[in-house]
Fold this protein.
Amino acid sequence: MPDLLQIGGATDEMTARVSEKFTIHKASDHADLSAWLADNGDKITHVQTNGHDGVKPDVMAALTNLKMISCYGVGYDNIDANEAVRRGIMVTHTPNVLNEEVATTAVLLMLACYRELLRDDAWVRSGAWEAKGNSPLTRSADDQTIGILGMGRIGQAIAAKLAPWNPTILYHTRSEKDVPYQYVGDLTEMAIKSDVLIVITPGGPSTHHLVNADVMNALGPKGTLINVARGTVIDETAMIAALSEGRLGWAGLDVFEHEPKVPQALRDLPNTTLLPHVGSATHETRAAMGKLTVDNLLSHLNDGTVISPVPECQ
Ligand code: A2R
Protein backbone atom coordinates (compact mmCIF):
# COMPACT_ATOMS: atom_id res chain seq x y z
CA MET A 1 0.00 0.00 0.00
CA PRO A 2 1.20 3.57 -0.67
CA ASP A 3 2.44 5.61 2.28
CA LEU A 4 0.51 8.60 3.64
CA LEU A 5 1.78 11.14 6.16
CA GLN A 6 -0.95 12.39 8.48
CA ILE A 7 -0.19 15.87 9.86
CA GLY A 8 -2.49 17.02 12.67
CA GLY A 9 -5.59 15.21 13.79
CA ALA A 10 -8.19 13.20 11.91
CA THR A 11 -11.52 11.75 12.95
CA ASP A 12 -11.78 8.00 13.54
CA GLU A 13 -13.93 7.71 10.42
CA MET A 14 -11.32 9.48 8.28
CA THR A 15 -8.54 7.27 9.62
CA ALA A 16 -10.63 4.13 9.11
CA ARG A 17 -11.29 4.93 5.45
CA VAL A 18 -7.73 6.06 4.71
CA SER A 19 -6.19 3.01 6.39
CA GLU A 20 -7.98 0.69 3.94
CA LYS A 21 -5.89 2.06 1.07
CA PHE A 22 -2.76 3.61 2.63
CA THR A 23 -0.15 2.83 5.24
CA ILE A 24 -0.58 5.73 7.64
CA HIS A 25 2.38 7.48 9.28
CA LYS A 26 1.46 10.08 11.90
CA ALA A 27 3.78 13.09 12.11
CA SER A 28 2.89 13.39 15.80
CA ASP A 29 4.44 9.94 16.49
CA HIS A 30 7.90 11.28 15.69
CA ALA A 31 9.47 13.60 18.26
CA ASP A 32 12.27 14.33 15.77
CA LEU A 33 10.24 14.56 12.57
CA SER A 34 13.19 15.88 10.53
CA ALA A 35 15.27 12.81 11.39
CA TRP A 36 12.38 10.46 10.55
CA LEU A 37 11.80 12.28 7.25
CA ALA A 38 15.47 12.04 6.34
CA ASP A 39 15.14 8.22 6.43
CA ASN A 40 11.54 7.83 5.28
CA GLY A 41 10.50 10.99 3.40
CA ASP A 42 11.08 9.48 -0.03
CA LYS A 43 8.41 6.79 0.40
CA ILE A 44 5.56 9.22 1.24
CA THR A 45 3.32 9.89 -1.77
CA HIS A 46 0.31 11.48 -0.06
CA VAL A 47 -0.15 13.93 2.81
CA GLN A 48 -3.30 14.55 4.79
CA THR A 49 -3.19 17.79 6.77
CA ASN A 50 -5.37 20.70 7.89
CA GLY A 51 -5.48 24.45 7.39
CA HIS A 52 -3.75 25.22 10.68
CA ASP A 53 -0.80 22.82 10.43
CA GLY A 54 -0.46 22.90 6.64
CA VAL A 55 2.83 21.49 5.32
CA LYS A 56 5.94 23.32 6.49
CA PRO A 57 8.49 24.10 3.75
CA ASP A 58 11.17 21.79 5.23
CA VAL A 59 8.63 18.93 5.41
CA MET A 60 7.53 19.48 1.80
CA ALA A 61 11.19 19.56 0.69
CA ALA A 62 11.89 16.26 2.50
CA LEU A 63 8.98 14.52 0.75
CA THR A 64 10.83 13.99 -2.51
CA ASN A 65 8.20 11.73 -4.11
CA LEU A 66 5.12 13.58 -2.90
CA LYS A 67 2.19 13.50 -5.34
CA MET A 68 -0.71 14.93 -3.39
CA ILE A 69 -1.68 17.01 -0.33
CA SER A 70 -5.27 16.81 0.91
CA CYS A 71 -6.17 19.67 3.27
CA TYR A 72 -9.02 19.34 5.79
CA GLY A 73 -10.30 22.94 5.63
CA VAL A 74 -10.88 25.58 2.96
CA GLY A 75 -7.98 27.86 3.92
CA TYR A 76 -4.62 26.55 2.75
CA ASP A 77 -2.37 29.52 3.50
CA ASN A 78 0.01 27.20 5.41
CA ILE A 79 0.68 25.16 2.26
CA ASP A 80 2.90 26.68 -0.44
CA ALA A 81 0.57 25.93 -3.37
CA ASN A 82 2.88 27.61 -5.90
CA GLU A 83 5.78 25.39 -4.84
CA ALA A 84 3.42 22.40 -5.08
CA VAL A 85 2.48 23.38 -8.65
CA ARG A 86 6.16 23.78 -9.54
CA ARG A 87 6.81 20.23 -8.30
CA GLY A 88 3.67 18.78 -9.91
CA ILE A 89 2.03 18.06 -6.54
CA MET A 90 -1.79 18.19 -6.42
CA VAL A 91 -3.30 20.15 -3.51
CA THR A 92 -6.97 19.82 -2.53
CA HIS A 93 -9.09 21.54 0.13
CA THR A 94 -12.70 21.42 1.40
CA PRO A 95 -14.63 24.41 0.00
CA ASN A 96 -18.43 24.81 0.13
CA VAL A 97 -19.23 22.11 2.71
CA LEU A 98 -18.44 24.58 5.53
CA ASN A 99 -20.01 27.75 4.08
CA GLU A 100 -23.17 27.69 6.18
CA GLU A 101 -21.39 26.81 9.45
CA VAL A 102 -18.81 29.60 9.15
CA ALA A 103 -21.62 31.98 8.19
CA THR A 104 -23.52 30.94 11.33
CA THR A 105 -20.39 31.68 13.38
CA ALA A 106 -20.13 35.17 11.85
CA VAL A 107 -23.78 35.93 12.64
CA LEU A 108 -23.38 34.46 16.14
CA LEU A 109 -20.42 36.76 16.87
CA MET A 110 -22.18 39.81 15.46
CA LEU A 111 -25.32 39.21 17.53
CA ALA A 112 -23.25 38.44 20.65
CA CYS A 113 -21.52 41.83 20.28
CA TYR A 114 -24.72 43.77 19.60
CA ARG A 115 -26.79 42.18 22.38
CA GLU A 116 -23.88 41.88 24.89
CA LEU A 117 -24.49 38.14 25.21
CA LEU A 118 -21.45 37.47 27.41
CA ARG A 119 -22.04 40.46 29.69
CA ASP A 120 -25.67 39.53 30.25
CA ASP A 121 -24.90 35.84 30.74
CA ALA A 122 -22.45 36.92 33.46
CA TRP A 123 -25.11 39.25 34.86
CA VAL A 124 -27.38 36.29 35.55
CA ARG A 125 -24.66 33.90 36.76
CA SER A 126 -23.02 36.40 39.14
CA GLY A 127 -26.29 37.27 40.86
CA ALA A 128 -26.06 40.88 39.61
CA TRP A 129 -29.64 40.68 38.34
CA GLU A 130 -30.97 40.11 41.85
CA ALA A 131 -28.47 42.45 43.49
CA LYS A 132 -28.48 45.37 41.03
CA GLY A 133 -31.59 44.93 38.91
CA ASN A 134 -31.77 44.92 35.12
CA SER A 135 -28.60 45.02 33.03
CA PRO A 136 -27.95 48.12 30.84
CA LEU A 137 -29.74 48.28 27.48
CA THR A 138 -27.97 46.97 24.37
CA ARG A 139 -28.00 47.87 20.66
CA SER A 140 -30.39 46.53 18.04
CA ALA A 141 -28.80 44.43 15.30
CA ASP A 142 -31.62 45.29 12.89
CA ASP A 143 -31.25 47.62 9.90
CA GLN A 144 -27.46 47.89 10.04
CA THR A 145 -25.04 48.63 7.21
CA ILE A 146 -22.73 45.64 7.03
CA GLY A 147 -19.50 45.67 5.02
CA ILE A 148 -18.19 42.26 4.03
CA LEU A 149 -14.49 42.01 3.20
CA GLY A 150 -14.34 39.00 0.85
CA MET A 151 -17.42 38.02 -1.17
CA GLY A 152 -16.63 34.43 -2.14
CA ARG A 153 -18.43 31.25 -1.13
CA ILE A 154 -18.55 32.05 2.59
CA GLY A 155 -19.02 35.82 2.18
CA GLN A 156 -22.13 35.16 0.09
CA ALA A 157 -23.43 32.66 2.67
CA ILE A 158 -22.96 35.28 5.40
CA ALA A 159 -24.81 37.93 3.39
CA ALA A 160 -27.72 35.53 2.81
CA LYS A 161 -27.82 34.42 6.44
CA LEU A 162 -28.07 38.05 7.63
CA ALA A 163 -31.21 38.76 5.59
CA PRO A 164 -33.72 38.52 8.50
CA TRP A 165 -31.94 41.47 10.18
CA ASN A 166 -32.71 43.61 7.15
CA PRO A 167 -29.17 44.84 6.54
CA THR A 168 -27.75 47.04 3.80
CA ILE A 169 -24.85 44.93 2.53
CA LEU A 170 -21.68 46.42 1.05
CA TYR A 171 -18.64 44.40 0.04
CA HIS A 172 -15.01 44.88 -0.87
CA THR A 173 -12.89 42.48 -2.95
CA ARG A 174 -10.17 43.04 -5.54
CA SER A 175 -12.60 42.51 -8.40
CA GLU A 176 -16.34 43.21 -8.53
CA LYS A 177 -18.64 40.16 -8.26
CA ASP A 178 -22.02 39.34 -9.79
CA VAL A 179 -23.92 39.63 -6.50
CA PRO A 180 -26.90 41.80 -5.45
CA TYR A 181 -24.81 43.90 -3.03
CA GLN A 182 -23.04 47.23 -3.41
CA TYR A 183 -19.35 47.00 -4.36
CA VAL A 184 -16.96 49.44 -2.69
CA GLY A 185 -13.53 49.60 -4.34
CA ASP A 186 -11.76 51.03 -1.30
CA LEU A 187 -11.76 49.18 2.03
CA THR A 188 -11.41 52.29 4.22
CA GLU A 189 -14.30 53.92 2.37
CA MET A 190 -16.42 50.82 3.03
CA ALA A 191 -15.47 50.92 6.73
CA ILE A 192 -16.56 54.58 6.95
CA LYS A 193 -19.99 53.61 5.59
CA SER A 194 -20.37 50.44 7.70
CA ASP A 195 -21.71 49.71 11.20
CA VAL A 196 -20.17 46.24 11.02
CA LEU A 197 -17.14 44.95 9.11
CA ILE A 198 -17.05 41.17 8.59
CA VAL A 199 -13.73 39.71 7.43
CA ILE A 200 -13.90 36.57 5.27
CA THR A 201 -10.96 36.60 2.86
CA PRO A 202 -8.25 33.93 2.67
CA GLY A 203 -5.14 34.43 4.83
CA GLY A 204 -1.56 34.60 3.55
CA PRO A 205 0.68 37.43 2.34
CA SER A 206 -1.86 39.06 -0.01
CA THR A 207 -4.28 39.84 2.82
CA HIS A 208 -1.76 40.37 5.65
CA HIS A 209 -2.92 43.28 7.90
CA LEU A 210 -5.45 44.42 5.30
CA VAL A 211 -7.53 45.63 8.25
CA ASN A 212 -5.10 48.18 9.69
CA ALA A 213 -5.46 51.12 12.10
CA ASP A 214 -6.90 53.36 9.37
CA VAL A 215 -9.64 50.85 8.55
CA MET A 216 -10.49 50.37 12.23
CA ASN A 217 -10.55 54.15 12.86
CA ALA A 218 -12.89 54.44 9.87
CA LEU A 219 -15.21 51.81 11.34
CA GLY A 220 -15.19 53.93 14.47
CA PRO A 221 -16.31 53.94 18.10
CA LYS A 222 -19.77 52.60 17.21
CA GLY A 223 -18.37 50.03 14.81
CA THR A 224 -18.17 46.25 15.23
CA LEU A 225 -15.39 44.17 13.70
CA ILE A 226 -16.00 40.45 13.08
CA ASN A 227 -13.27 38.06 11.91
CA VAL A 228 -14.02 34.50 10.78
CA ALA A 229 -11.20 34.39 8.20
CA ARG A 230 -7.61 34.31 9.45
CA GLY A 231 -6.05 36.26 12.32
CA THR A 232 -3.35 37.61 10.02
CA VAL A 233 -5.85 39.70 8.03
CA ILE A 234 -6.21 42.10 10.99
CA ASP A 235 -3.33 44.02 12.61
CA GLU A 236 -4.01 42.57 16.07
CA THR A 237 -1.81 45.05 17.96
CA ALA A 238 -3.55 47.98 16.28
CA MET A 239 -6.93 46.36 17.01
CA ILE A 240 -6.17 46.01 20.74
CA ALA A 241 -5.14 49.69 20.84
CA ALA A 242 -8.27 50.79 18.97
CA LEU A 243 -10.58 48.72 21.22
CA SER A 244 -8.82 49.91 24.39
CA GLU A 245 -8.88 53.57 23.40
CA GLY A 246 -12.50 53.54 22.24
CA ARG A 247 -11.62 54.23 18.58
CA LEU A 248 -13.25 50.90 17.70
CA GLY A 249 -16.42 49.80 19.49
CA TRP A 250 -16.58 45.98 19.56
CA ALA A 251 -14.85 42.94 18.12
CA GLY A 252 -16.11 39.38 17.66
CA LEU A 253 -13.19 37.13 16.81
CA ASP A 254 -12.92 33.44 15.92
CA VAL A 255 -9.30 33.69 14.73
CA PHE A 256 -6.12 35.30 16.04
CA GLU A 257 -2.75 36.28 14.64
CA HIS A 258 -0.74 33.80 16.72
CA GLU A 259 -3.46 31.34 17.76
CA PRO A 260 -3.84 29.52 20.06
CA LYS A 261 -1.93 32.35 21.76
CA VAL A 262 -4.33 35.24 22.44
CA PRO A 263 -2.82 38.39 23.99
CA GLN A 264 -3.87 38.97 27.60
CA ALA A 265 -4.80 42.56 26.69
CA LEU A 266 -7.38 41.23 24.23
CA ARG A 267 -8.72 38.70 26.75
CA ASP A 268 -9.14 41.48 29.33
CA LEU A 269 -11.24 43.73 27.07
CA PRO A 270 -14.98 43.67 27.88
CA ASN A 271 -15.97 44.80 24.37
CA THR A 272 -14.84 41.55 22.73
CA THR A 273 -16.39 38.14 22.14
CA LEU A 274 -13.70 35.53 21.57
CA LEU A 275 -13.99 32.01 20.13
CA PRO A 276 -11.22 29.37 19.77
CA HIS A 277 -11.34 29.06 15.94
CA VAL A 278 -14.57 27.04 15.83
CA GLY A 279 -16.04 28.52 12.64
CA SER A 280 -16.68 25.09 11.10
CA ALA A 281 -16.44 23.04 14.30
CA THR A 282 -19.72 21.14 14.49
CA HIS A 283 -20.08 17.36 14.26
CA GLU A 284 -22.06 17.66 11.04
CA THR A 285 -19.76 20.05 9.18
CA ARG A 286 -16.52 18.44 10.34
CA ALA A 287 -17.89 15.07 9.15
CA ALA A 288 -18.61 16.58 5.73
CA MET A 289 -15.13 18.15 5.60
CA GLY A 290 -13.55 14.85 6.64
CA LYS A 291 -15.46 12.96 3.97
CA LEU A 292 -14.34 15.36 1.23
CA THR A 293 -10.73 15.26 2.48
CA VAL A 294 -10.71 11.46 2.21
CA ASP A 295 -12.73 11.37 -1.04
CA ASN A 296 -10.05 13.55 -2.62
CA LEU A 297 -7.27 11.22 -1.42
CA LEU A 298 -9.00 8.05 -2.59
CA SER A 299 -9.97 9.56 -5.93
CA HIS A 300 -6.39 10.68 -6.56
CA LEU A 301 -5.10 7.23 -5.65
CA ASN A 302 -7.70 5.54 -7.86
CA ASP A 303 -7.32 7.44 -11.13
CA GLY A 304 -5.33 10.65 -10.51
CA THR A 305 -8.40 12.90 -10.50
CA VAL A 306 -9.62 14.96 -7.51
CA ILE A 307 -12.90 16.60 -6.52
CA SER A 308 -11.85 19.95 -5.07
CA PRO A 309 -8.38 21.16 -6.11
CA VAL A 310 -7.16 24.55 -4.83
CA PRO A 311 -7.32 27.25 -7.55
CA GLU A 312 -3.56 27.04 -8.22
CA CYS A 313 -3.95 23.36 -9.20
CA GLN A 314 -7.03 23.73 -11.41
O1 A2R B 1 -10.30 39.70 -4.33
P1 A2R B 1 -11.08 38.70 -5.11
O2 A2R B 1 -11.86 39.35 -6.25
O3 A2R B 1 -10.25 37.53 -5.53
O4 A2R B 1 -12.22 38.14 -4.10
C1 A2R B 1 -11.89 37.21 -3.07
C2 A2R B 1 -11.60 37.89 -1.75
N1 A2R B 1 -10.19 38.31 -1.61
C3 A2R B 1 -9.81 39.57 -1.34
N2 A2R B 1 -10.52 40.69 -1.14
C4 A2R B 1 -9.82 41.82 -0.93
N3 A2R B 1 -8.48 41.89 -0.91
C5 A2R B 1 -7.72 40.78 -1.10
N4 A2R B 1 -6.39 40.86 -1.07
C6 A2R B 1 -8.39 39.54 -1.33
N5 A2R B 1 -7.98 38.28 -1.57
C7 A2R B 1 -9.09 37.54 -1.74
O5 A2R B 1 -11.89 36.90 -0.76
C8 A2R B 1 -13.13 36.41 -2.72
O6 A2R B 1 -14.30 37.19 -2.82
C9 A2R B 1 -12.93 36.03 -1.26
C10 A2R B 1 -12.50 34.58 -1.05
O7 A2R B 1 -13.53 33.77 -1.48
P2 A2R B 1 -13.34 32.18 -1.74
O8 A2R B 1 -12.09 31.95 -2.49
O9 A2R B 1 -14.63 31.68 -2.30
O10 A2R B 1 -13.08 31.59 -0.29
P3 A2R B 1 -14.14 31.07 0.79
O11 A2R B 1 -14.52 29.68 0.52
O12 A2R B 1 -15.24 32.08 0.93
O13 A2R B 1 -13.23 31.07 2.09
C11 A2R B 1 -12.57 32.26 2.54
C12 A2R B 1 -11.65 31.99 3.70
C13 A2R B 1 -10.76 30.78 3.61
O14 A2R B 1 -9.64 30.98 2.79
C14 A2R B 1 -10.34 30.56 5.06
O15 A2R B 1 -9.22 31.34 5.38
C15 A2R B 1 -11.54 31.10 5.83
O16 A2R B 1 -12.40 31.72 4.86
O17 A2R B 1 -12.21 30.03 6.44
About this structure: The mean pLDDT is 98. The chain has two domains: 3-97+284-313, 99-274. Residues 74-75, 95, 102, 150-155, 172-175, 200-203, 206-207, 210, 229-230 surround A2R (CB under 6 Å).
